[in-house]
Amino acid sequence: MTEFLTAAVGLILAMLGLGLVSILRGPTDADRMMAAQLIGTAGIAVLLLLGTVTGVPAAVDVALILALLATFASIAFVKKGLSRLETDGADPGEDR
Amino acid sequence: MNVARDIITVAGVSAGVFFFFAGTVGLLRFPDTLTRLHALSKADNLGLGFVVLGLLPQTGGLRDGLKLISIWMFVLLAGATVSQLIARTARQSGSGK
Amino acid sequence: MNIATVFEIALAAVVLGLAIWTIAVPDTYSATVGFIAYGLLVALIWVRLDAVDVALTEAAIGGGLGGVLLLGAAARLRDTEAMTTEGPSLIVRLSAAILSASIAAALAVTILLLPDPAPTLAPAVVANAGATGMTNPVTNVLMAFRGMDTMLEKVVLLLAIVGVWSLASDQAWGGRPGPRHQADPNGVLAFLARLLPPAGIVVGIYILWTGADHPGGAFQGGAVLASMWLLVIMAGLVDTPPVRSRWLRLILVAGPGLFLAVGLGGLCFGSAFLAYPVAFAKPLILSIEVAMLLTIATTLGLLLAGAPERSAER
Question: Which residues span the membrane (chain A) (predicted)?
């Protein structure tokens, strides 16, 4: 069972790495805004599996914080990314 | 009993890994921001859901199980909202067309 | 080489690759996004190393609040960056690279030269774990064995707030920090800002409460509360409080104040400064932590909100 879960952790981590490469390469800032979301899903899955594999039940609490704070970071990405458009003279519509 | 639990775990986590795989393929293959966002938010949230489902039989008790489910709920709620905001930004900046 | 080693190598490779990308990318916004992702991923490494308390702090500060602070800085720098046509000269960049590389090398050498086994006080901490009635060794160290350091840390947070506020112009002094955020009250962001904070506040308090016996504590809980507060502010549902408000300042000094009062009580009635009476150790520590939770949440929120920019009347 442990081997199976460790393999699953490794696979999801590899997906996370590949996804990050694709997201951070862009081309636009809107692509990069997805980074925190990717970690908010795949990173949490890795964390939960890791907690079970290594027998650290408190990893669930880290996942809980990660879920909340990754959301917060994503929203900040969008808000601060919007102010770039404002300086470019485009009307961002401020999350309507 | 233990075997039944392990079967659920193997099935759930495998399904989760599959959806993460699908999401990453989408991220790498889809051409523009909006379609990639679609791949990321839908497939990955489903993948996390299956992983949580698979880990539920391995948890110590009701409290730990509820924590796992609430994590997934947070991620779903946040994922839906943030995807909306990102998609809107992408459309306004013109890259989503 | 078993499968766990492969996983560890993969994790290290992803984090290192992300770190190099963050340094190499020229655009400030992209670098900040990379840094936040890096902070969130480093939390995974801490969990692998069995340092869950550190992982919680890293996820909350390195990934969440610290990153958002950098994003704010990047948004402000954008205007000046657009105006400057040339970047820093080659000499500046080269000397910055040499300085950073030598610091990294010095750290690496220090770690590699540590005697094996490294000198540690961990057995003493474990042996005295029962003295406070709490079983999380990290909380024991922070609140009892090295309580003085923790108290002074909170004073440093207070000084940081004073430093940020002192950047305000004379007209704005005593006013509200940061811009007023506008958002559609029926939009998705406002919807999330109504739905998530109640659950987030419960999580913050849970992290504080579980800190007695499991990883967690006031700092991590406070960071969660601060992020929920800022979420509501960013959604435009509430405004930042004017910094001259009396209750705000009371909350800001509540944590260190109570800590200091308990410490002086130990000096008067007990054996030393910050000596807890054995019978009341756990309730005293818990009440200090509750006060600190409020102080930390408010301080972190205000640090991110920035210097007062608008007069309070508007």
Answer: 6-24, 36-56, 62-78
